[in-house]
Amino acid sequence: MIEFVLPIIIITLSNVFYNICTKSIPVKVNEFAALSVTYAVAALCSFVLSCLSNNFSKEALLQYKNISWASLLLGVVIIGLEYGYIQAYRVGWGISVCSLVANISLAIVLVFVGILLYKEHMSINQFAGILLCIFGLYFISKK
Length: 143
What we know:
By secondary structure, the protein is mainly alpha-helical. It has helices at residues 2-23, 31-53, 58-62, 69-90, 95-118, 124-141.
């Protein structure tokens, strides 16, 4: 059971700190300067964890030859994600609402991505949940 729940706990806690840190980036700091430092730290941590997970063997470095287009594009996409959140907070979105609206919107779009690209199926209950989310977005975004 813990193997199933632990990733969700990690995602949730990471997202809490992600939003706190993103909202805390000073306005006087250029977004991309902040992101370059963020990703330098992330790259270093990822490299160290990669080495640790392979017991510092030669295998750790060989993993890099298997990197696909997905990792490269993910790097670009993450910059858009981070920049979007920084800008959202700078234009006045509250921390309590911004992530909620963004994640509900994401979930709705991913339902259609799952159906169209991955041939996933949607039940009546899931469709009803999507409608509730859309109505919820309306009420949450309304000032």
